[in-house]
Every structure is written in C-alpha cells, then in structure tokens.
Amino acid sequence: MIPAETYLLLSAAVFCIGLFGILTRRNALIFLMSVELMLNAANINFVAFSLQHGNLTGQVFALFGMALAAAEVAIGIGIILVLYRNFTDVDVTKATTMRW
User: Fold this and answer.
1) Which ranges of the chain would DSSP assign to H, the alpha helix?
2) pLDDT at 35 over 90
3) Rounded distance, CA 9 to CA 56, Å?
4) In the chain, what are the domains?
5) In the predicted model, what is the mean pLDDT of residues 13-18?
6) Hey, how many other C-beta atoms are within 10 angstroms of the C-beta on 2?
7) Contact 58/47 with Cβ under 8 angstroms?
8) Which residues have a Cβ under 8 Å from the Cβ of 57 and sit 6 or more positions away?
9) For 23-44, what is the mean pLDDT?
10) Alpha-carbon gap, residue 11 to 46, rounded angstroms
11) Rounded CA separation 13/39 (Å)
C-alpha cells in the first residue's frame, strides 16, 4: 500500500506547477489549465486524506471539486472566446482595456 505522504508530495508538486503557470504565463488557455492543475491537486489531497482515515467523505468532496472544475472550464472557455473575439489574441494583459 502506498503511504499517504506520497500522495501529498504528488499533490504539492502538481499545485506548484499550476501556481508557476499562473504566475508566469500570459496566455489565457494556459492560465485556465494551470487553475485546473491546482484544483486537481486539491482533489488528490481529498482522496489521500480519505484513504488515510478510511471513510468516503474526501472522495465525495473530490467529486464536488470535479463538478466545480467542469463549471469553471465552461465559464472560462466563454470568457476566452469573448477575449479572442474582441482582441484577436488570448493574452490576458490586453483585457485591461475592457474596463471602460
């Protein structure tokens, strides 16, 4: 059986990769994928703690997290399409001109 610490290290690595993607990239699609990585890291944590404690509560929360991620992708793709339609680019720094 794999110890829970291994899952937590994997989760921390995936979260750090997602955080790095958010902080360094300007492309909206990569930004969206980085947020998905961070949400998946949280789901790995939920499942790891569920495995450690022997109940299914963490797995239920992970399912809710997946539903949240699906809703986030649907809204994010809509925002990216509007961004591309207005600026013909998916650079998130150009969206500051949409304020006024």
Assistant:
1) 4-24, 28-53, 57-87
2) yes
3) 21
4) 4-89 (1.10.287.3510)
5) 97
6) 9
7) yes
8) 50
9) 93
10) 10
11) 13
